[in-house]
Design a protein that fits this description.
The structure is a homodimer. By secondary structure, chain A is of the alpha/beta class. Chain A has one domain: 3-Layer(aba) Sandwich (Rossmann fold). Chain A is built from seven helices and eleven strands. In chain A, strands 5-2-1-6-7-11-10 form a seven-stranded mixed sheet, with helices on both faces. In chain A, β8, α4 and β9 form a beta-alpha-beta unit. The radius of gyration of chain A is 16 Å and the shape is globular. Chain A starts with a strand and ends with a helix. The relative contact order of chain A is 0.14.
């Protein structure tokens, strides 16, 4: 099973690597990081590089497409060749998925129109503005389109997807293999549960970025 | 604050990228992926490459050291130059940390003797055999030595460490930024909670690998 993870400059590393770590453990899975051009892509902090091993043209029809998010997604909101690739891939894919603001790219390419989908909590309004039924849920399935909330939600999404692809037992074995028994030190992972002043600080920071 | 994440061939990607995603968001943090030689390192599946931007010699005294695990750690259990670097770095570091079987490398370098520490649940016995007080906990602090359980535990470890370094509010803002509100689809993330047959299957697979 060919699984393509789209990468690009200034993506968020964990958006891509969370799903990679889960999906690469599926029996028979071949995960490939793809980009318009092969080679290293610097993530949003500039401090880490992931390597694209194939160009979009080289992997036109993966069974699973994963689109991570990150600040660099802004440059892909009206990018012809990436959108063309996504649309063509989506025509034949078994699953078309995203993590975090990756759903904005899918929506911009016209693939989520009228569908239920999610994104980073700070991006739900923008997703709604693109004609999507945007919901504040961790993982959303709408037919073959699967979207995850912010950054770390890609791990939950990939485990849920692994179960659909290979069955619950395989997904559970992967979960145990990566010892995914999360114990966050704080109740701060969602805007509903985090302290109000921290939610507001992040909203303000995002607003200042325009 | 200089944070060095040691990478090497056949490491587990999420072991490195989980802590990177959290620690790189600390104010003033500069995370560098380091290796004996710079350049791309292929992870355990061969399907993803992380790039080392600096050699060990170039970053002799980071304030924070992170040692991820993975099958490739076997080649580092008696590696002179990596052990020398770890011992020298540990002499002046503020925090020396590991994820998953990274603690076996730290222990092999003599840095965890008699200390409380953890590792991937399948590696606790081996850790104990290296003279460590190995405990099945998610994140273990023993002075400046901090160890995490398997793979995904590096996220919890890094958030706990972020709180020690920069305070609870900064750590909570990072947690909300990466929307770390985990919702695993199964109760299968630890050997205590996973179905017995899945625990046994993973034990058997590990035993067959020798």
């Amino acid at each position: 099973m060919n699984i393509a993870i789209l990468i690009y400059d200034r993506l968020t590393a964990l958006d891509a690597v969370g799903p990679y770590e889960v999906l690469s453990r599926l029996p028979g899975a071949k995960v490939t990081l793809v980009a318009e051009e092969t080679g290293p892509k610097r993530t949003d902090t500039g401090q880490l590089a992931l390597t694209a091993d194939a160009s979009l043209a080289e992997l036109a029809h993966p069974e699973v497409v994963v689109v991570p998010g990150g600040p660099g997604r802004g440059a892909l909101m009206d990018d012809g060749s990436v959108h063309d690739w996504l649309r063509a891939a989506d025509e034949r894919s078994t699953w078309t998925t995203s993590v975090c603001t990756g759903s904005l790219i899918l929506a911009a390419a016209g693939l989520l129109k009228g569908k239920r989908a999610t994104s980073h909590w700070l991006a739900l309004e923008e997703l709604r503005g693109l004609g999507v039924d945007a919901v504040p849920e961790r993982v959303v399935f709408d037919g073959k389109h699967v979207t995850a909330a912010g950054v770390s939600a890609g791990i939950d999404m990939a485990l849920a997807l692994a179960a659909r692809i290979a069955g619950d037992q395989v997904a559970q074995a992967i979960q145990l293999g990566i010892e995914y028994d999360p114990q966050p030190p704080f109740e701060a992972g969602s805007p509903e549960r985090a302290p109000v002043e921290i939610v507001e600080a992040l909203r303000a920071r995002r607003a200042s970025l325009g």
